[in-house]
Write a structure and sequence with these properties.
2 domains; two-stranded antiparallel sheet; six-stranded antiparallel beta sheet; mainly beta
Length: 172
């Protein structure tokens, strides 16, 4: 009897682990769908891949995403920022490549982080020692509520909007 219970328990645990892994891997069924932003600034091709969570009536910055803590700037896997040539972000050089894009939201100033470890789940394994670049930017208010996180390339800036907050950083 004990052997049958052990086998049954092992089977249930294996099925649950398989289902959890399959759900994590199937991006089309996630509540925060995959999204992309792409464009060219001063001849540099930029691609940003992220997952777009919704506000759903929650307080986002200073609530769901606490001030002063590293945020993956999206949901699920870390947001990736890929550029095909060296560029300047807020006047500081960023070498061509693919980076995890993190931010540290605060009420009056945000830190935008380009981390060398682009293949991360969220910010759980984030290490400051792997940062390629950090810049500081000022947040602003959106004209209206932005329900789903949006990242866009607009002119010579990358703009992040969610809830009532807008943050932009200059690219050259």
């Amino acid at each position: 009897m004990k052997k049958q219970i052990s086998i049954l328990t092992l089977a249930v645990v294996t099925l649950m682990a398989t289902a959890a892994f399959a759900q994590k891997g199937d991006k089309s069924k996630r509540p925060s769908p995959a999204a992309k932003a792409a464009g060219t600034i001063d001849g540099a091709k930029i691609d940003i891949e992220y997952s777009s969570p919704s506000v759903k009536g929650r307080k986002i910055f200073g609530g769901l995403e606490p001030y002063g803590k590293v945020w993956r700037t999206g949901a699920n896997e870390a947001t990736t920022f890929t550029v095909d040539k060296d560029i300047k972000i807020e006047g500081k050089t960023l070498a061509k490549g693919t980076y995890a894009l993190f931010t540290i939201p605060n009420e009056n100033e945000w830190t935008v982080i380009f981390n060398k470890n682009a293949k991360q789940w969220g910010a759980f394994d984030y290490k400051e020692s792997e940062d390629a670049l950090r810049v500081m930017v000022k947040p602003g208010k959106t004209a209206a509520l932005v329900e789903k996180l949006s990242i866009a390339i607009e002119g010579s800036k990358v703009v992040i909007r969610w809830e009532n907050t807008e943050v932009a950083f200059a690219v050259k």
